[in-house]
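Hi there, hope your week has been kind to you so far. No rush at all, and the record is pasted right below.
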Amino acid sequence: MEQLDSSLFFEDKTPSSSFIGNKRNNKEQKTKGNKRIKVKKDEEELQLERELFGNGSEIIQNFGNDKAFSSTSFIKDEYKKEEKEEKEIEKEKRKEAVWNDEDDEEEEIQVGKGKVVKVSHGILKDEKEIVTMKQYEDNLRNEFKKKTLLKDDWANKSRKSRNDENLDEEDDDEGIQRTTMSRMGRSGLLESGELNVERTANANNEHRCNGITSVRFHPKNSLLSIGSKDSKLLLFQIDGKKNPLVSHLELKGTKIYSAEYGLNAHEILLSGNQSCIYSFDLSQSVVSVYKDKALADIAKEWKRIVVSPDDQYLALEANKSQHVPLLSNKSKKLITKFTMKTAITNTQFTPDGNYLTCSTAFGDIYRWDLRMRRCVDKSNDNGQLTRALAYSKNGSYLASGSENGIVQVYQNSEVMKTLGSPIKQMDHLVTEISEMKFNHDSQILATRSAFDSTGKNGLRLYHVPTFSAFSNFPSLKKFGLVSGKINSFDFSANSGFLATASESGIVSLFRLLDYSNA
């Protein structure tokens, strides 16, 4: 990216030293030619001189008198006066909320009829209730907060930004610290229960296609790619309103099964009903074909491409194959292949890019060390027949989806030698799990089943770390979803959008309102 250097020029409006000097000397004696002109003293200056020095007779009379006025005592008194004023100012700056008056706890008042507040405000249960001053003050404060919570939101944001700027500064006020932490918690963490979501315009209103197999958001911007079995790759700029089509590609004779971003998101990798793989350069709009006889000997078509998080490797999946080829992302050349005892159902790289995890039809989960190129662990998925895997972006969890719709979550760690026991099991779906994915901050886990034809039970979103399902999503009636199988889904880069592709060729778009950035 070309960087443009820019300079800012400021006009220097600082007064010159000569000007300042003239200002300072404007009360001193002025000269006109060789003559000295006395500046007439005002009454304030004369009064000050009398207080400091008196007249000549007063000085003689007061000489030797201990109580006589001296310039030294005047300076000391002024210093004490200034010190006292500074203490008063400092005292005013202290927050009164940090100090509690014990008298407020003991003194009682009777809230009579029509004196303070109305019963309908919910502050007092009885108009003649006797409460302490402290209780009365707290009631008024709580009522004020209720009324001004929404109105003062801008002020809360401003205070929050100031707190962020002063995180390194010590604050003895524990109440303020607790308030700041609670605000950060509310703004940074999702709440379980219901998801704050709304339906927006369909992503592909400008151009629909049949047999959608893949929807993927660009990892750095709002570009959405849609791949389909009718050989088309469509690119849309997502804004939630018009979502214009910006580019398209057609691979004649090739059904697109998978479309993933690679090489630092500068290209889109495509696989389908061919033994080769394709690369679409986003900057030059050029398509490259990568053919390898070694790949053709392993499988005749590739249903899925998996890109490692560090952008170094590619892994390929084929139907009913026991082999997973590992390719260089840069050259697209075969490096090695990993072989399991039974057919592979899903493949995922660990978030650190050091391991490749593969599930098989009989529920075995293999972990391959990419540095040593050997299997370091083989565990069973707690008796389930595994069909899908997903790692959280923060590396804390590994989720597995089974043939009967069961979702299991495991604690993940590089130091763990075996899979261990699941920490959570969810059974909201009743058909085979086809795809799973955590969002960018690992607070949402999404699962889909392509075998549910009604669309009602094809997608579930879970709150992390409670792993409880969001009760209001999906809802066909509320969000106007088109019934039918869900073939693919994806979160945008900052989880502001969720895109779901139906069997009918419509890509529904949802705005997750808890995420301000799309």
